[in-house]
Q: What sequence folds into this?
């Protein structure tokens, strides 16, 4: 990794990373053309801010950080005008319980280790299929969060309120949980 | 006493924001006694880990 580089060197570096960035963005957004746009923005921002790259982290880490900001900037536009969502209006898991709040459809035990499951191509296909059912903006929130971005950072950068964030996460996790239960665990 | 519906909501919320002390205590009591809510929590954790690992392998 060069300590300092001229612009053409940097452009070559960035080209080499473009595919990785695109794969990263598509996995999180599930929308190829949106991913393409945000990767393009990322590369431009990286060129503009080249002098800020200190070489302390890998260029990949630095680019991913910029890309994450771009995704959150995009989400800010998407979520800005939406009203506060109230969980009491419609909890996605309401139908699991009776009027007294007791389990009617109790969860089954999910056997096995998630890391082992992910090694199976068949499971990955099911999981990817379930993720594709999640609307792109919410998918991006879900995946940035599960990927380790702290809730408060997501809220700050995307202007999603903390209440909305947990309600979104709850709904999306509920959706994914049901999908896996139906498409994977029920068939095993 | 928490209902299972309330307990699952607290489990979901605790994954994003810290619960109050009273909520944490109520949830802990409930989980000691309720196998299904423990299982629900375990499923959510399983799900998060699987998605995380899936993202890591797709890069």
A:
């Amino acid at each position: 990794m060069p300590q300092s580089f001229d612009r053409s060197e940097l452009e070559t570096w960035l080209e080499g990373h473009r595919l990785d960035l695109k794969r990263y963005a598509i996995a999180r957004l599930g929308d190829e053309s949106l991913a393409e746009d945000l990767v393009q923005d990322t590369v431009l921002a990286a060129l503009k801010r080249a002098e800020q790259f200190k070489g302390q982290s890998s260029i990949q880490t630095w680019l991913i950080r910029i890309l994450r900001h771009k995704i959150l900037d995009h989400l800010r536009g998407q979520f800005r005008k939406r009203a506060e969502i109230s969980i009491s209006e419609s909890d996605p898991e309401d139908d699991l319980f009776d009027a007294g709040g007791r389990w009617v459809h109790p969860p089954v035990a999910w056997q096995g280790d998630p890391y082992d499951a992910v090694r199976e191509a068949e499971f990955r296909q099911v999981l990817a299929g379930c993720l594709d059912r999640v609307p792109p903006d919410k998918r991006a929130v879900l995946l940035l969060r599960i990927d380790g971005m702290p809730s408060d950072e997501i809220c700050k950068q995307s202007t999603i309120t903390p209440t909305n964030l947990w309600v979104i996460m709850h709904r999306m996790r509920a959706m994914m949980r049901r999908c896996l239960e139906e498409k994977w665990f029920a068939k095993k | 006493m928490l209902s299972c519906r309330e307990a699952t909501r607290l489990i979901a919320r605790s994954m994003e924001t810290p619960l109050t002390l009273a909520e944490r205590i109520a949830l802990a009591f409930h989980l000691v006694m309720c196998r299904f809510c423990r299982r629900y929590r375990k499923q959510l954790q399983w799900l998060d880990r699987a998605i995380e690992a899936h993202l890591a392998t797709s890069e």
